[in-house]
Amino acid sequence: MTTDTATGKELIVRGPQADLSGVAILQVLDALDHSGPARSAVDLARAIRHAGGRPLIASAGGPLLADALVAGAEHLQMSSASSNPFTLMGTASQLSRYLAQEKVSVVHLRSRPGAWPARRAARRRGTATVATVSALSSAGGKLAQWLEKAVERADRVIAPSAYVQQALGEAGMSDRRIRHIPPGVDLARFNPAAIQAARIINLARDWQVPDGAAVVLCPAADADDPGTRRLVEAMALVRAKPVVAYLLGEADGALDGLQRLVDDRGLNDRVRLYGPCRDLPAAYMLSDVVVVPNMVPPVFGQEIAEAAAMGRPVVATDLGASREMVAPGETGWLVVPDNDAALAEAIDRAVSMDLGHRRAMALAARRLAQDSFSLAGMCARTLDIYAEVMTDPT
């Protein structure tokens, strides 16, 4: 692994296939928020720069804009995602001019809502396209589905999991166009050995963790997500004591409305709600188990990958990509969806493990992250696709 001496970020090692000297690559996404696609866009911008290329990002901006600029990206302010035809056409025209002005060689579509205008602009300019599937087609109206299909019409389509790869194949996409590349985790940042005890102590103090309490962490909670509500219900059934679940919203206000459920169930001593965490690696280290209670099959589990990198056991629902990211009994547990008792039982098992079992699970989880979710590997393979599609887009 190589790291950027200025930022400490994990980098790819430059090689013949990753040489993008002078090549402009534009990534298009809705916003530079705290989502997985936005974090990956910033990581790839850094890799493009270190491969000699010019990383460009078009988005509506957001909290990760500063990180993107530090990574060396140039940013184009773009309208937020919209299904309004006039807005879509205006965004396509804006992007078309930008592609010509900056002599862009590859457009990387990173989110479904903004993919249609970006692909239209690329086709107008004869620019190669790569798309990462961040969600499978929705059950929305015909217009929404038609717009979303722009991702699947790219020259190369990156599937973040075997689950997505299979779904695309079953939908009729040629294997020649699909590449399976899991998103990467920064193994330098998410590294147990790099977390000083003071960071964990400070976070425990901020969260007022009771002495001796087991910590259950849900790092991507949402008040509107039925899986998050299932976790709250399950905490009433957990037998281990003392145990406290910390639910972190990915954005401010994400957990608004959930406090009433906590109050109604009398769980204020067991469930605590917080906004985004500024030191997520320390939060993983503070936890005894990480819970990812998806009720919709995930295309990838970023929180599962991060927990694995930190050597933390995971309890996840037996759906989608989670099935290929959790080794039951080795790195965590998979539970039946919508079953509070099963979820509570898995949490009990996780917080009750003896030290030897916990250490073995931590080692297995870290190996899994290094083998399957390396940021260096993700960046290197994606840059190879850029090089490939520039020479042979068909």
Model description:
The chain is an alpha/beta fold. α3 packs across α4 (115-125), α7 crosses α10 (280-286) and α11 (302-309) crosses α14. A seven-stranded parallel beta sheet has the order 5-4-3-6-7-8-9, sandwiched between helices. Strands 12-11-10-13-14-15 form a six-stranded parallel beta sheet, sandwiched between helices. The chain has a two-stranded antiparallel ribbon with strand order 1-2. It is elongated and about 60 Å long. The chain has helices spanning 36-50, 65-70, 85-102, 115-125, 142-148, 162-170, 197-207, 226-235, 259-264, 280-286, 302-309, 322-325, 340-351, 355-372, 375-391; strands spanning 2-3, 10-11, 24-28, 54-59, 74-77, 104-109, 128-132, 156-159, 178-180, 214-221, 243-249, 271-274, 289-292, 314-317, 332-335. β7 (128-132), α5 and β8 (156-159) form a beta-alpha-beta unit.
CA-based gyration radius: 21 Å
**Average pLDDT taken over every residue:** 91
Distance between the termini: 33 Å
The side-by-side strand order for the widest beta sheet comes to 5-4-3-6-7-8-9
Class from helix and strand fractions: alpha/beta
User: What overall geometry do the principal axes of the alpha carbons give?
Assistant: elongated
- Proportion of residues in helical segments: 40-55%
Total strands: 15
The major β-sheet equals: 7 strands, parallel
